[in-house]
Amino acid sequence: MSDAEKGGGGRFGWLSGRRKRSIEEVILMLLCTLSIPSILPFGIYRLVQRNWLSAAVDIALVLAMLAVIVHVWRTGRHRVASFCVTLVYSAGMLVTVYLRGVSLVYWVYPTMIACYFVLRPGVAVAINGGSLVGLVAILAPQLELLNLMTIVVTVGLVNLFAYIFSHRTGEQNKALHTEVELDFLTGVGNRRSLDRKLADHADERRPHLASCLLLLDLDHFKQVNDQYGHAAGDRALVRLCEVMRLHTRATDRLFRYGGEEFAIIANGAALPAASRLAENLRAAVAATCLIDGHPLTISIGVAAMDKRTAPADWLMQADKMLYAAKQGGRNAVRVADAVAASDDAEGA
User: Fold this and answer.
1) pLDDT tens, N- to C-terminus, the chain (348 residues)
2) Is the Cβ–Cβ distance between 167 and 121 less than 8 Å?
3) How far apart are CA 16 and CA 26, in angstroms?
4) Measured CA distances, 41 to 3, 47, 196, 259 (Å)
5) Burial of 295 (0-12, 13-18, 19+ CB in 10 A)
6) Catalytic pick from 260, 261, 279, 346?
7) Helix/strand/coil percent split, the chain, to 5
8) Contact (CB, 8 A) for 211 and 267
9) CA–CA distance from 5 to each of 12, 13, 79, 333 (Å)?
10) In this structure, are residues 258 and 199 in contact, taking their beta carbons and an 8 Å threshold?
11) How far apart are CA 20 and CA 279, in angstroms?
C-alpha cells in the first residue's frame, strides 16, 4: 500500500479525514451522500407545492443523512449509525407511502436493498420484515387482495435474493480474508495478519487490558536446513507451532513473522504475565523434540504494546529484546522495560 493510501489519499481519500477508514465507514457515508440528492429535490418540489407534511418527511430524511455523515466522519463509529440510518430509511419509506399512497410503493425496493449494504443479513431481514408488515397495514385498505399479494410476493423475493447474495458474499469474503492472512506452511497468521492485528489494537478506542508482543526465533536453525534439508526444517516449524498452541492461551494470537521467526500477541497480559508465558514456552520447546537427533531451542523478546507508542515501536522493542536474548547465549527470554521503551519512542 502506498503512503498516499495509508494517509487517506487512495481511492476513497476524500472520505478519509486524514485517518484510515474501514470499508464499512466508506459505504455508509457514500450511501448517505448519494441519498441526499435523491431525496432533496422531492422535498423542495413538495415545499413549492405547499405539501408541508410530505416535504417535512423528505427534509427530515436529508438532515438525518447529514447527521450520520458528520457523526461517522468525526468518530468512525459506524455500527450504531448503520442501524439507526436503516431505521430512519425504513420509517421514512412507510410514512411516504402512507401520505402519498400506493403510487410511491416503488421506493420500498431500493430502501430494503440498501439495508443489506450496511447491516448483517439477519438484521436487515428483521428490519425489512417489520417494514413489510407495516406496508401491508398501510396498503390493505387501498388495494385489492391480488394486487396486495403481488406487492408482498415481489418484496419478499427481493429480500430473499438480497439476503442470499449478501450472505454468500460475506462468507466468501471471510474465507478469502482468512486464506490471505494464514501462513501456508504452519497455519498460523502471516506477516500481513500481524500488521493488521497490531494496527487494530492501536486504533481500538475502548479501554482494554494491557497486552504484550512476543518475538521468538529458533536458535541455530540454519544448521537444521543445511544438515537435514529444508523439508525437515519445515516439519520442525510445523511442530514448533503445535507446541506454541499447546502452551499459549485461547486469547493469544500466533503469527509467522518470517522464516523461523514467530510473533505472539498476548492479549490482556501485562509484562509480568507475558514474561511468564514466554518462559513457559521457552522451557516447553527446549523439552520437546522438534526434529530427531537435533535439539532445538528458542530465544524470545517481549515488549509491551503501549498505546502511547506506535506498532512499529512495539516491534522494534521486541526485536531489540530478541537480539539481546540471542547475544546473551540463546535459549533465553528478555523483557523490555516499559518506562525505558516509552522514553526511547518519545526520543526517536
Assistant:
1) 334 334 444 444 444 445 567 788 888 888 888 888 988 998 898 899 888 988 888 898 889 889 888 888 888 788 888 888 889 889 988 988 888 888 889 889 999 998 998 889 999 999 999 999 999 999 999 999 999 999 999 999 999 999 999 999 888 887 777 778 889 899 999 998 999 899 888 887 666 678 999 999 999 999 898 899 999 999 999 999 999 999 999 999 999 998 999 999 999 999 999 999 999 999 999 999 998 888 999 999 999 999 889 999 999 999 999 999 999 999 999 999 854 444 454 444
2) yes
3) 8
4) 40, 10, 43, 60
5) middle
6) 260
7) 65, 10, 25
8) yes
9) 9, 7, 24, 38
10) no
11) 37
Using CA atoms, how far residue 154 sits from 132, 160, 337, in Å, is 11, 10, 65
Length in residues, the chain: 348
Place of cell 515488549: 303
Query: How many Cβ atoms sit within 10 Å of the Cβ of residue 35?
Result: 22
Which neighbouring-strand residues pair with 214? 264, 302
Rounded to whole angstroms, the Cα distance separating 139 from 97 reads 8
Q: C-alpha grid cell for residue 144?
A: 385489492
Read off the amino acid at residue 124: A
Query: CA gyration radius for the chain?
Result: 28
User: Catalytic site residue 242?
Assistant: no
Edge-first strand listing for the sheet containing 212-218? 253-258, 261-266, 212-218, 298-304, 333-335
Parallel, antiparallel, or unpaired: how do β-strands 298-304 and 333-335 relate?
Answer: parallel
Q: Which amino acid is residue 247, in one-letter code?
A: H
The type of residue at 341 is A
Indicate the pairing of strand 253-258 with strand 333-335.
unpaired
How is residue 298 written as a grid cell? 528458542
C-alpha torsion sign, points 8, 12, 15, 20: negative
Q: Facing residues of 261 across strands?
A: 217, 258
> How far, in Å, CA of 298 to CA of 18, rounded?
41
Distance CA 282, CA 159 (A): 54
| DSSP strands (E only) in the chain | 212-218, 253-258, 261-266, 298-304, 333-335
